[in-house]
Specification:
Shape: elongated
Number of helices: 7
Radius of gyration: 22 Å
Number of strands: 0
Distance between the termini: 53 Å
Largest sheet: none
Strand content: under 5%
Order of helices and strands: HHHHHHH
């Protein structure tokens, strides 16, 4: 009889020694982004079903509601705002690959680092500008101007600074990962 099988984790002394606090932070942010993105991706299915129902009701039964139409874009906003960081995590963001592909690996990493820094700066500006926008919507109790529309529009607008905060986190994780890769490149 054979004894119990033990599985050793795939680590070496070298990889354990090089693991840093920055790497732990990066991995934590990436896990959070991945979890948030996967959860948010289900909104796409909800939007498709909602749109299909709205179209069927409108064209087959001549029945439609304002709140259901507004709900479509109320669901689209978190899909986009939380999906940005998920796309960045998985490299599905917009990049000029025609130029990028011609660069050396080191130059590509510098472009990634610069992109992360610019993304963080732009996100900070958007957050700063959107806070007053969200506050104003909350104070006046903004809701749909259409009869039968959705209320609490401030909650939807509050997703703007939240979504861009997630983008800052993922951009910081990208910058940390890029710095790790730059250190690993031979000089």
């Amino acid at each position: 009889m054979r004894g119990p099988v033990t599985v050793k984790p795939f680590t070496t002394t070298r990889s354990v020694a090089k693991k840093s606090a920055a790497a732990d932070v990066r991995v934590g942010i990436e896990r959070f982004t991945d979890l948030t993105g996967r959860a948010t991706s289900w909104l796409a299915l909800v939007i498709v079903v909602l749109m299909a129902i709205n179209v069927l009701l409108r064209y087959l039964f001549s029945y439609g509601t304002v709140w259901a139409q507004e709900l479509e874009w109320h669901l689209l906003a978190p899909l986009i705002l939380f999906g940005m960081s998920y796309a960045l995590l998985h490299g599905e963001h917009v990049r000029v690959d025609v130029l990028y592909a011609q660069f050396s690996p080191r130059k590509q990493l510098y472009v990634d680092l610069l992109s992360a820094a610019l993304s963080i700066m732009i996100s900070v500006i958007i957050i700063w500008l959107s806070l007053k926008y969200v506050q104003q919507a909350y104070v006046i109790g903004e809701q749909s101007s259409d009869p039968g529309g959705l209320t609490h529009r401030w909650a939807l607008k509050a997703l703007i600074p939240l979504g861009f905060s997630f983008l800052i986190l993922q951009s910081a994780a990208l910058a940390l990962g890029t710095l790790e890769k730059l250190k690993a490149l031979p000089k």
